[in-house]
Amino acid sequence: MTFEDFNLNKPLMNALKDLGYEKPTTIQQKGFSVMMSGKDVIGIAQTGTGKTLAYLLPCLRLWSFSKLRFPQILIIVPTRELVVQVVEEVEKLTKYMNVVTVGVYGGANINTQAAQVALGLDVLVATPGRLLDLALKGDLSLKKIKRLVIDEVDETLNLGFRKQLTGILELLPEKKQSLLFSATMTEDVEILIDEYFIVPVKIEAAPTGTPLDNIAQQVYHVPNFNTKLNLLKYIIANNKDLSKTLIFTGSKKMADRLFEEIDPLLPEKIGVIHSNKAQNTRFNTVNSFQDGTFKILIATDIISRGLDISEVSHVINFDTPDIPENYIHRIGRTGRYDQEGISITLVSLFEKDFLSQIEDLMKMKVPVSQLPEDLEISDILTDDEMPKITMPNVEIKTTKREGVGASFHEKSAKNRKVNVRVNMKDKMQAKYGKAITRGQKPKKKKK
Ligand code: AMP
Description:
alpha/beta; Rossmann fold; 7-stranded parallel beta sheet; 14 strands; binds adenosine monophosphate
């Protein structure tokens, strides 16, 4: 199948020619005619499969010019980085069309974005929170939306945007086409679909859990964290083909810690990105990695999802992901679009179960590499790795009290007080040290 078979219009064909895309990817082939028919669609596809173009082509082919310039196409994505990326892709495709595209996301000035929206637009790309804020503020009209795309639905829900998402769905016109894209079909995604979408057609890029064939995977078994760190440093120092390497960690803290550890090995060639970094820093870091200034980018799962960084040579999983699907997403950052990729996973004793779950999901074993002979094996354990001293669970028997039922509670100190009458004399004595009674008024001194 070629793009000619899609019966696209001239402007879109010319834009595709400029982009140099030769033939549609699987998800583009499977999705095009269904989406053109106007049906609701659920696309199971991860980044790297060409899913963005898969929904943009039919949406833009079906778009028609309107002087009103209310948005007709709404694309909701989970992160600010993805907003920017999708806007860029729309702009490339609409190079020969009169289409205005605007991206809005949180963490940037809302008034600037409201002013931009007020000028009129055709395609809106947004993160859920900011989109809802703009709509509720009355700065944005959603009544002309004809096509809704929710990209990376699973991630949007994972990030806790369910309420915002359903809030937006309530504001949208009932008559519209909805296209949902998700890397995995989670229970949360299914619930959302059941509630809001009418018998959507399901299309799939590749069965969930199937990693791309062109990624050579390997694991190293290491006894503990410090040896893992030594191994990572060893790999960086001894591997000349680490031209564009993504290192994943499970937490922001670990990402920062790793950065401190490995930065001296390649000064100014390593970047770190996670959700605590300021928006500008995040953009700049990704750009520096994209253009080759940074050879290594340390990232957390959430931030990397959906990032389209081309030609990643290696993915290193410093932490073995505890959610097996995350492994597929992580290694899917390399080997994109027919290029060869390498993934290296460092598995400590404590993470062996996670690896088994990943292998179960993929229905294959990942080849094990031998540790280099000159690798320094550390026997220093981290606090987390220290064997825990546990106290035996001794049951303390309390004597049973007569007449006390099951609902007996110990009285609080305040309520346990017994009211005791204290007479005036005792009170005064406690206060002044001696008893002063009415009958003992101090006598006036005689002059
Ligand atoms: P996506 O899965 O949408 O994140 O796309 C991954 C990458 O593939 C993007 O850089 C696209 O520009 C590129 N791409 C999408 N469709 C095609 C195609 N048919 N031929 C070549 N590259 C493509």
